[in-house]
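for the writeup, i need someone to sanity check this before i put it in the appendix. the sequnce is what the collaborator sent (i think, or maybe the updated version? ugh). structure was predicted straight from it, no edits. if anything looks off just tell me and ill rerun, i have time this weekend
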Amino acid sequence: MTQVGLSHRWNLRPADDTKVNELIIDMGLHRILARVLVARGIDSKEAAERYLKPELSALGDPFAFADMDIACDRLLKAIQQNEVIGIFGDYDVDGVTSTVLLWEFLESCGAQVVATIPDRLREGYGLNVAGLDRLQAGGATLIVTVDCGITAHKEVEEAVTRGIDVIVIDHHTVLVDLPKAVAVINPHRPDCGRAATHMCAVGVVFNLCMALRKRLREANFFAENPEPNLKDLLDLVALGTVADVVPLVLDNRIFVHHGLDLIRQERRIGFKALLEVAEVKEGKVSASTLGFHLGPRINAAGRLEDAMQAVKLLRTKEMSAATVMAQMLNTQNQSRRDLEKEILAEAISEISNSKEHKDALVLVVGREHWHPGVVGIVASRLVEKFGKPTVVIGENGKGSGRSIPAFHLHQSLCQVQDCLQGFGGHAHAVGVHLVFSQLSLFRDLLNQYAAKVLKPEDLIQTIVYDGEIAGDDVSENLVNDLAVAAPFGRGNPEPVFRLKCLSFRNLRELKGGHLRGEILLKKNIPFVAFGMLEKMKLFEKPADVLAYLEINEWMGRRTIQLRIKDIQVALTNSVN
């Protein structure tokens, strides 16, 4: 069933009623939860049990990754011969958590470790000579890149000429030729035997740790050394996975499920400090907490300052030091948000007042004074607003792009690379570097390519919902039933439901362009509608909505509320 709304197309996830009824009978599930699961392909008792109780034992074989055995052999040699192992990470959350994860695991195995992350503004993305210098000065004879390195051909060759071996761990799109490293572990390699293209770097690094621990066991290493518990590192994997917005399915969902348990226990001092500055209670930590509260604060260090600040925070054992560092990241995050708002307003103004942008299939905007550390976030906001693939270019021609499902952004850049200084990424997100004089040419070529592969319907923004519910269904018990299916994220989103022909009252505007009010049911239910001020008039008459069910806690009181995602004029006269 497809319904075109005011600005979005609404699609109902199909579900086999027979299989829904089987889950209800076999497992005693609420009928609405059963439908949510079946609609997402979890359509048997066995599949539902695996989904609702994610077990670490269900993780796949790490040695199925191409080059995993080679990487483990080299790392085992380094540990046994007491070599210094260097880690070169990326400056985003995935890179930071990957760096800390590998650092802590190798240290727990008795290895000597040095680590570095590039300065985003001075050095840019990826392995570079300055980073090699720092690691070599620290004594490294083996370097492991995490969340980067797949395109670093020259830099890997430079390391080899210096007598330094390199292991590349990355999850970005693999080009035709691999760098000449000792080992290249990337789930996108055509010869990778592990079905793990859904993983980000920190998930791949965790698999490396699993494999290396097994190899150390076989070498009888732990007969004289304590064996590390990898489960204790899943808090890092959870944060990196959610923040990198990879699909929250399969192994990723297992990582996040167990990692959230650790974060709620506040075992890691750095997380405890971050939760405090973000004003999040430990018992309320969810996947969305990682994505909207912790991730942005970790990211802020690499966007505006030095990502090694975030590494130090996650590794510290002292609460007083953690509090100071967390407050510093919180301040940087607020500065990032202010910058983001300024740039977003300028970009929206340019797009809205330009016929060329309105007619374009792909939006390309750029200003030389825009901070390159926040252009990726701005690109995401523009995709949400305009429903088109978007590339935003900032200072020194450094930019980021975000896309829609129908447009593979990395493949598109491969078609226009002659006007670029460099690029990298994957289908949904890319980084680019160009000379500003080439901006118009880049825009034209990208749109020419888009005209060949995009259809008009591809640009209609679609919201997929999980079913229709009546006002009588809205209850705290239903919220609790649905909660057992968490965590939710990309590829497995929080369930959203359609309620028909609702009437509203006490409508009021909140700061930031949000709306709040009540839905007139047998028992009036509060609602909040974020960023929907422009649609205020639709709330003045009966309307259909797509909404999430949630519990709002305020001043010690728990009340159920609807968080409205979209609204359209009611197509029926029967009040819910």
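The CA atoms of residues 147 and 303 lie 16 Å apart. Residues 1-6 have pLDDT under 50 and may be disordered.
thx in advance!!
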